[in-house]
């Protein structure tokens, strides 16, 4: 959890959608709904999605009935699911290649996965044996993203193509990692603004796997639904805190430099790709909720009501790290989470956060198993995630209220051109 996320926004529809009851009465089909989406211009390419993530194009929240028509594009310079707005539902799943499966089987699997992702993101049924779970829904901003873990390259004889940036993350003193829920040969991220659409995609990806791979671990997450607030605003996490304001923004001149591997970068197959760090961070909510509101604000360094820094102003006002109170004490405590994670306090280290909250039930002792599926994107984790986490490890006030329980690092190649599949330059290069 770092204080770098941007306000949760989305591109609203140009016309209000019909109610579900009206849709049922008129018998509007899935294909007709998608045709309407195309006509109203609700197609989000990379640039449009990035702009929507960075700033709200309108103060009015889109009506919930329009959510199904929103569509992200599978083909493009970058894979989907990186710069798009936060989605209401998410699944992340890691696979290990089956015994005896290698490069040939991996290539066939990525080809199947890419075609399924293309179809589902367009609001079409999967190519074969569709379960019909999402047949009444539109695309609902579905994105499906694919990545490779460190172990994938040895399993496929591609060690020479493994990026140096994919070296295992260092150990951190606050880690309590479950190895069975960490890492993996292959990683898939699924997000959508409808739970059935997201589950449908998860099930289709799993079925496509066949005998080539097996699930290593799988996690489910959620965010606030678009349109649930009077106007677009930064999401809150399960601690009730507005979670971040300082994400890199696509409009910034160095955004691509920080988040994406350059077109002439190394290795060549990672051009326009990015690296995803995935961490399951459990929040110790019973301990957190015993703190007073003021104590919680001191831990974070921001007001709980509106996300503004304790030094004053609004949510987006720059934090004054030197401001003191009448007694000469720093207004933003020296170990406040927001102070420690500031890029200008970490040599400019930055990452694009795109997390989901999770709640996986209540333990036998009555403690909620809940927290954050932390997912961050950067051009190089050694310059993005690692230096920030090392600094947090040394004295973050939030550390006693969270526990890092699983971790993974994945190389996510650039987007697939039409007629290509994700990872083709690696697997057929």
UniProtKB/TrEMBL annotation:
Belongs to the DyP-type peroxidase family. The keyword ATP-binding does not apply. Binds 1 heme b (iron(II)-protoporphyrin IX) group non-covalently per subunit. Residues 1-12 have a biased composition (Polar residues). This is Deferrochelatase. Keywords: Heme, Iron, Lyase, Metal-binding, Oxidoreductase, Peroxidase, Signal. It holds the Pfam family Dyp_perox_C. The keyword Disulfide bond does not apply. Its cofactor is heme b.
């Amino acid at each position: 959890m770092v204080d770098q996320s941007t306000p949760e926004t989305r591109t609203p529809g140009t016309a209000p959608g019909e109610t579900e009851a009206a849709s049922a009465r008129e018998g509007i089909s899935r294909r007709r709904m998608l045709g309407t989406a195309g006509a109203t211009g609700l197609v989000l390419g990379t640039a449009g999605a990035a702009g929507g993530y960075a700033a709200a194009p309108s103060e009015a929240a889109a009506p919930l009935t329009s959510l199904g028509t929103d569509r992200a594009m599978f083909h493009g310079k970058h894979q989907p699911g990186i710069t798009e707005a936060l989605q209401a539902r998410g699944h992340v799943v890691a696979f290990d290649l089956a015994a005896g499966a290698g490069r040939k089987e991996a290539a066939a699997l990525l080809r199947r996965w890419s075609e399924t992702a293309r179809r589902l993101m367009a609001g079409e049924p999967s190519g074969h044996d569709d379960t019909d779970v999402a047949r009444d829904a539109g695309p609902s901003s579905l994105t499906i993203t694919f990545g490779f873990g460190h172990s994938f390259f040895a399993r496929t004889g591609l060690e020479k193509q493994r990026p140096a940036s994919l070296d295992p993350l260092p150990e951190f003193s606050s880690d309590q990692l479950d190895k069975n829920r960490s890492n993996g040969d292959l990683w898939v991220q699924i997000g959508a603004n409808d739970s059935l659409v997201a589950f449908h995609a998860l099930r289709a990806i799993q079925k496509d796997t066949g005998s080539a791979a097996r699930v290593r671990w799988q996690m489910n997450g959620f965010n606030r639904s678009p349109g649930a607030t009077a106007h677009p605003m930064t999401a809150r996490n399960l601690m009730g805190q507005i979670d971040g304001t300082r994400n890199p923004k696509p409009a910034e001149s160095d955004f691509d430099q920080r988040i994406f591997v350059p077109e002439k970068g190394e290795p060549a197959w990672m051009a326009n790709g990015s690296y995803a760090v995935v961490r399951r961070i459990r929040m110790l909510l019973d301990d957190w909720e015993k703190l007073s509101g003021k104590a919680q604000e001191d831990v974070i360094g921001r007001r709980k009501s509106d996300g503004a820094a304790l030094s004053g102003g609004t949510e987006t006002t720059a934090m004054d790290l030197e401001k003191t109170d009448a007694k000469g004490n720093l207004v933003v405590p020296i170990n406040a989470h927001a102070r420690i994670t500031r890029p200008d306090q970490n040599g400019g280290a930055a990452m694009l956060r795109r997390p989901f909250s999770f709640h996986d039930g209540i333990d036998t002792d009555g403690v909620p198993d809940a927290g954050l599926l932390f997912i961050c994107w950067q051009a190089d984790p050694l310059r993005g995630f690692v230096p920030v986490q090392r600094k947090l490890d040394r004295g973050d006030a939030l550390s006693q209220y969270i526990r890092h329980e699983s971790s993974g690092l994945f190389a996510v190649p650039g987007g697939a051109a039409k007629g290509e599949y994700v990872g083709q330059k690696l697997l057929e290069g």
